[in-house]
Amino acid sequence: AQTVTQSQPEMSVQEAETVTLSCTYDTSESDYYLFWYKQPPSRQMILVIRQEAYKQQNATENRFSVNFQKAAKSFSLKISDSQLGDAAMYFCAYRSSGNTGKLIFGQGTTLQVKP
Amino acid sequence: NAGVTQTPKFQVLKTGQSMTLQCAQDMNHEYMSWYRQDPGMGLRLIHYSVGAGITDQGEVPNGYNVSRSTTEDFPLRLLSAAPSQTSVYFCASSYARAGANVLTFGAGSRLTVL
Description:
The structure holds two protein chains of two kinds. By secondary structure, chain A is mainly β. Chain A has strands at 3-5, 10-14, 19-21, 24-26, 32-39, 46-52, 60-61, 64-69, 74-79, 88-96, 103-105, 109-114. In chain A, strand 8 and strand 9 (74-79) form a beta hairpin. Chain A is globular and about 40 Å long. In chain B, strands 2, 4, 5, 6, 9, 10 and 11 form a seven-stranded mixed sheet that branches. A four-stranded antiparallel sheet of chain B has the order 1-3-8-7, with no helix packed on it. Chain B has strands at 4-7, 10-13, 19-25, 31-37, 43-51, 54-57, 64-66, 76-78, 87-94, 104-105, 109-113. By secondary structure, chain B is mainly β. Chain B has no helices and eleven strands. Chain B is globular and about 40 Å long. In chain B, strand 4 and strand 5 form a beta hairpin. The A-B interface holds A 4, 6, 9, 33, 35, 42-45, 47, 50, 91, 95, 97, 99-108 and B 30-31, 33, 35, 40-45, 48, 50, 56, 58, 88, 90, 92, 94, 96-98, 101-103, 105, 107-108.
């Protein structure tokens, strides 16, 4: 069975600086998808970024980028130029390539942004 | 375009009562699922469905029942509520095909069982 681990329960960053959230996963599959979701206090789950395992190039979405290390089974999220609105809980998630679509989540990391 | 709609947003139950959390999506998604979120444990899959008439168990199915009679609706039933089912519940849906498999989540339902 696949597992996802986020070892940082809480992180903090100064506004305008860069922070990296860690995520590791365990799987025997070769084809899969990885995601980072943001959950602000409103509770809504918002997709931040997605990575296909077959792609070697790291995904980037504006100030958000990932460092995908397939061999090490690591998938970290880098937030550049942090903004107050980035404060939230961040979840790393794994999804198999099959059509069941089950998403396996990590425990979450709470990010605090200091002004 | 409403996306994924969950009702109710908040509910308080007494132990032993039954209730149904409703979930509806208007995107013609094949895949629908229910998760529960508990502090320090992330989101855990309760039940999921890959199409009308097809359901399967996730990681934590005990105490919950589902059915999928239409593509749009995927209700979650608690037959006899227990305090351990106090949680925030999320419904999510997506297309089944690999290139469009990003889950869209509902706003969540906070359930308290006394």
